[in-house]
Amino acid sequence: MRNKLPKAVIQRWLLLALLWGVPQFASTQPASDLVDVQKLDSTIVIDLRYATADNFLHDTLYSANICLLRAPVAAQLVKVHKALRQQGFGLKVWDAYRPLSVQKKMWQKLPDPRYVADPARGSMHNRGAAVDVTLVDLTGKEVEMPTAFDDFSPRAGSEYPHVSAAAKRHRQILQEAMTAFGFRTITSEWWHFYYYNSRDYPVLDVPLDAFQPRR
What residue ranges define each of the domains in the chain, with the CATH number in brackets? Predict the structure, then answer.
């Protein structure tokens, strides 16, 4: 018979896990089903804001500018993009897979679950099953939307009414295209969409450069 750990030891471990805010399911090994979205469709514009200092933390948080998603999620995003092109638009991706370590930095800066997921639970981005996107025209130029990216104000809401007619129309086009292919919205950010079965994927804490080919 195996020796059981004392109850006090188990409780102490659980308490430490809660204090550290580290999901016990977070993997530090690269996932084989994360794919580079631009390899599936090079016409999707990739502008990962956290791979630069052009973000609300004013810091470069990603080790590579590579847009990664779970394979089924990426395939559906490509379908969204192709459907939008028939309407004269396309997608620009601001964020996709995000390591858990980056999530912690964001939470330290903005511990508000309306805009940043608590790393103790893990974000859909940490699962490789969420994207932050906007619309562009067929030349790749951004069209008018309600706000800029990471605008943490009521105007960023997915149903906020007091925006221009053009911004409201573009927001609706984006929402209808994304939801038609299995993505869901959140109320606080018009640019954020997660795939319907996001929670089926485990949280990852692997730097983006781990997914680049070794030279």
Answer: 26-211 (3.30.1380.10)
